[in-house]
Amino acid sequence: MGRLIEEIYVWRLPVRLYHWINALCTVALLVTGLYIAAPLFNPPLGEAVFYKGMSWWRYLHFAAAFIFIANFLFRLYWALFGRDKYGRFGGFRPWSPAWWGKPFLEQVKSYLFLRSDEPNYVGHNPVAALAHFLFIFCGSSFMIFSGLAMYGENNPGGFNSVWFGWMIPLMGGSYTLHWAHHLMAWIFPIYLIMHLYAVFRHDVVDRSSVTSSIVTGYKHKVEEEPV
Amino acid sequence: MQSNQSFADVFRAGGVSRRDFLKFCSLTSVYLGLSPSMVPSIVEAMEKKSRTPVIWLHGQECTCCSESFIRSSHPTIEDIIFNLISLDYDDVLSATAGHQLEDVRRKTMKDYKGKYILAVEGNASTKDDGVYCMVGGDSFLNTLKETAADAAAVIAWGACASFGCVQNADPNPSGAVPISDIIKDKPIVKVPGCPPISEVMTGVVTHFHTFGTLPELDRFGRPKAFYNTRIHDKCYRRAFFEAGMFVRSFDDEATRKGWCLYKMGCKGPTTYNSCSKIQWNAGTSFPIGSGHPCIGCSEPNFWDKGPFYTRLAEVPFLGSDSNADKIGVIAVGAAAAGAAAHAAVTAVKKAKAGSEDNDKA
After folding, report:
1. Angle between helices B324-360 and A187-206 (to 10 degrees)
2. How far apart are CA B244 and CA B242, in angstroms?
3. What is the pLDDT of residues A140-185, one digit of tens each?
């Protein structure tokens, strides 16, 4: 058995709040978004004017989307100005060849079972940082920009139409934009599976209590005792 | 007939009363989204300005734009406009043909250099020097370039000229391109649709005649007055959409009740046009009004976004037709399988390492 030798406060409250709000919004957005694309429920009986069968799903989607955007902007603020050692973007430098060097390769090799030992990181390891950049930063940005462009479609000349409407010709038309938004939504369940798997696996292999750390904020270092 | 007649002269000669003439001017200003104070400008332009010469070219197309134009909702007045816009060249409608007609085109280009409107219906084939569309003994590609050189402005009629339509749908055998890919140095107004609504077509011509400029255009180069909003936003079935009352098959009760066609693949929510406002054939109906989903004919590359009767487009993926959901589910499945395999290898490695440790101990 291992012995707890250190307790490290890794995820400060703003990061944990961001994480869970983001998780809830993403699930809500995916479910409501898929429903909007293919409404399943039976129609109500009677006059259309009394019902909001589709409006509610759209309303929930838009409400979750605005919380998601606010949360995303808050996380950007925290990363840039939060002075949070583990929550900032400081260490992520994909434009520099050095970043792709030893630490990144070691982590990749470890994931590919080419190394027996696991490199230890208190915050995100370089592969995790890259995954978060691609899926969470780029993915969310695309979903936000394309989503706001579509949101602005019913008010031509309005704020969203003026600031985000350029997405429509960029994607080759409103329909293609909807299609791309729909397709890109699938990266989130893919990310979710990889994320949960990586977290549980690290918890089992490293025994760093990474799973509970996103609730409590604390990770632990474990020392192997000689048997 | 004199070549410098005004519209009003033509109207009078055609037996249209002044009252009807003013009605036409008011209605056109409404279509163009102009304030009532602009009506006198239209009347004045119609009465005093000599008619704008128009050269109307036909490339790779089906002539549905012309068919639409001659079926406008105010036949007396608009038919006169159409016949007497000073439509100097239109190879489909002219009485003359051959060299005689081509001479007329060249004469107009010379006499009204920099002043005539070039209206283009259809697009040009660019593959193999454009041999797949030959008009009057020359490739349409050459004719288009030649005629556009001295035009004041260019009107791209219909989906073909604006975006390419069926000719440049995959696999585009003739190398068809929208005319904006060929004419780069002239103001172009795109009037997409397959065909465009006739009132939209006369509206664009009237705007140019009145103000001498093209109407205000959106990001795709379409006149904002007609292409600013989606079919969906002005659709009379929108209430059924919001209530979640959808047609699920073309023979169900909901079809008879006229519910929303969203689930039948209606492209109204992504199509910018005036069908749900102005409607067709003197305001008689429009596709959704007749129980058919919108196919999005005024949107770029609408042929490649099919099928018409499903909401989600099919795209080639791994050698077969697929859609965004199928691709997504396959990718999620692959991620889950990958995670499971990785977990299995981890477990095996760990068990191995564990037994080695035990051996050492």
Report:
1. 10
2. 5
3. 999 999 999 999 998 988 999 999 999 999 998 999 999 999 999 9
Taking the Cβ of residue A1 and every Cβ of chain B, the question of whether any pair is shorter than 8 Å is answered with: no
Indicate yes or no: CB of B349 within 8 angstroms of CB of A113.
Answer: yes
Closest CA to A76 of A18, A147, A28: A18
Which residue of chain B comes nearest to A56, CA vs CA?
Answer: B242
Q: Determine the distance in angstroms separating the CA of B252 from the nearest CA of chain A, rounded to an integer.
A: 13
Question: Which of A153, A183, A194 lies nearest to residue B335, judging by beta carbons?
Answer: A194
Query: Does A2 contact B at CB distance below 8 Å?
Result: no
For residues B235 and A47, which has the higher predicted lDDT (pLDDT)?
B235
Kindly list the domain boundaries of chain B, sorted by start residue: 7-227, 232-311, 329-360
Q: Which of B301, B325, B329 sits opposite A172 (nearest CB)?
A: B301
CA pair distance B119, B153, nearest whole angstrom: 9
Interface pTM, i.e. ipTM: 0.88
Chain A residues inside the 8 Å CB shell of B240: 48
State the SS3 of chain A: CEEEEEEEECCCHHHHHHHHHHHHHHHHHHHHHHHHHCCCCCCCCCCHHHCCHHHHHHHHHHHHHHHHHHHHHHHHHHHHHCCCCCCCCCCCCCCCHHHHCHHHHHHHHHHCCCCCCCCCCCCCCHHHHHHHHHHHHHHHHHHHHHHHHHHHHHCCCCHHHHHHCCHHHHHCCHHHHHHHHHHHHCHHHHHHHHHHHHHHHHHHHHCCCHHHHHHHCEEEEEEECCC
Question: Residue B249 burial (CB < 10 Å; 0-12/13-18/19+)?
Answer: exposed
CATH 4.10.480.10 fits B232-311, yes or no: yes
pTM of structure:
0.87
Chain A hits for B361, CB-CB cut-off 8 Å, are: 227
- The pLDDT, as a whole number, for residue B1 is 42
Taken in order of first residue, the domains within chain A and their CATH numbers are: 2-224 (1.20.950.20)
Output the six-digit token pair for A150: 């579509």
CA dist., res. B42 & res. A2, Å (int): 89
Q: What are phi and psi of B42, to 5 degrees?
A: -65, -45
Q: What is the pLDDT of residues B192-242, one digit of tens each?
A: 999 998 888 888 887 887 787 888 999 999 999 899 999 999 999 999 999
Averaged pLDDT score across all residues of chain B: 86
The H or E element containing residue B267 is none
CATH code linked to domain B7-227 = 3.40.50.700
CA distance B228 to chain A (A): 6
Q: What is the mean pLDDT of chain A?
A: 89
Across the interface, of A55, A177, A197, the residue whose CB is closest to B343 is: A197
Mean pLDDT value across residues B137-141: 90
Q: Which residue from B244, B301, B349 is facing A173, i.e. has the nearest CB? A: B301
Q: Region B168-192: what's the mean pLDDT?
A: 92
Asked if residue A227 has pLDDT above 60, the reply is no
Going by the DSSP 8-state scheme, the letter that residue B274 receives in this structure is S
Average pLDDT over residues A111-134: 85
